[in-house]
Fold:
Amino acid sequence: MTDPSSNTTLATNRRAQTNLRTIVERMVDGIVVATLEGVIRFANPAAEQLFGRSSQELVGSQIGFPAVAGERAEIEVVQAGGTPISAELRVVDIDWEGEPARLVMLRDITLRKRAEEHAAQLEQERIARAEAEAASHAKSDFLAMMSHELRTPLNAVIGYSELLDLDIAGPLNDDQRRHISRIRECGKHLLSLVNEVLDLAKIEAGRLSLQSGVGRLGTIADAAASLVQASADARGISLITRPPSGAGGGLFFRGDEDRARQILINLVNNALKFTPVGGTVSVDCGEAEMPPAEARVTVEGSWVFIRVSDTGIGIPADQIPHIFEPFTQVARGHTRPRDGSGLGLTISRRLARMMRGDLTVRSEPGKGSVFTLWLPAAGAETAAPPSESRDGANRLQGVAEVGEILIREAGPLLSAFVARIRAENLAEAAIRLRYSQLADHIATYIGDLGTVLVAVEEARGQPSGLLADGTEIQRLLAERHGAQRARLGWTADDLRREWELLDDEIERTLRRCATGVPARTIEEALTIIHRFNGHAEELSRRALTREARELGHRRKASTT
Structure:
């Protein structure tokens, strides 16, 4: 005879199981019920979506990760299509259909993890930039102070040697006069090195100002030749200067004529140092519609150039990227045959870029080198912010506020930008890439773009070290971005569309958030932003092409 109380208990248990199953099936979190051995017995619809597999596929398979009661952890789940997602794991012991089991709750936290990663990345970049700027300022201040301290006694040494050579303290014999001459020449050489260090310190601290005007290539070429001709004759080297064609050597550039002459003298002196006796150094002037791809320029329009060619020892290909770094020479060590601080090329390139031009090099060991100074032709329209006109300061009033809004809204703007990349599926791999891979260098680029807007207003149309640094940072970011996209399989059309999306999202964000800023100011800021973005797109495209070419060469080499 059946016990009525046991039947009641059994019915109650069935109802409880049914209710539990109903609740579990309706939960938004993924729920998996597994045996104590880890075999899945049940999976709710949310779990099917999370794993990317049907309930029939899941039931009977191993759960794939340790499930210990009371455990709470974060795991990575790979969906059926290979897409990884992050999930929060919780495990409790239950009785399931009369048998002991474990209920595993899985909550998709992928978006939260991406947001945390993005926030951490932005914070790391902010800290790194602050530390780099602080270190750079400290170094520049130290170099400037030490340079001033060194120049005072050096000038005294040179001055007293010249007085002695004039027989102020009495007549000198030939040996004494020869020693005095060596003291004077060594003092002048050391002073030139100190002056180079001081120039570099001023450039890095943003304290070196240039004169904005119009210069003539023929004038600086003649001046440089007259200064170094004696040195070329002493070394037995032919110095050939070819004047630019046109009436009066009429190629004009926009920039600082004194600094352009300083660059040219550096280039010619370097060429003389590394050219053997009987060699040739030539100086040519010309014009071009566009510099070569390796030149980093911020000017639209026509260009002029001065090219210094030599028949010297040349530069190994692996050393070319390093010759413009401070205190770097191709021949290193205490026994290197040529003296110098290793700052001449560094200062020359930075001066060229401050004049919105560049300094490029092509060389081959044993066949000589060609250094080319590129400068915007007089009358060229720059791609920099329109702050040079007479009413520039008035038109720029308020763009700093737009820049601050851009910095503040960088996070949401970046999220919207990444979402549009995924929505358009620009490249085949885009939908499978992590947020950080799609955001790449753009987060830093947006922040720096906002900083540039602030610097533009503060500079009031005058040269600004912060603006120059910001432009240089954007160049670097754009090139790194293009190279990274090439490695991910982006095409040139994908990259062009990506920059269009960024440009559009920046404009949408500013029009939505800068409601308190006058419409005229917003339009002025957007004009600046569009120009910077257009230039960055071009630099990215060049970098993508170069990187894609290198990848093709490496693949070809690996298969042969």
The chain has 16 helices and 14 strands. Residues 110-165 form the longest helix (56 residues).
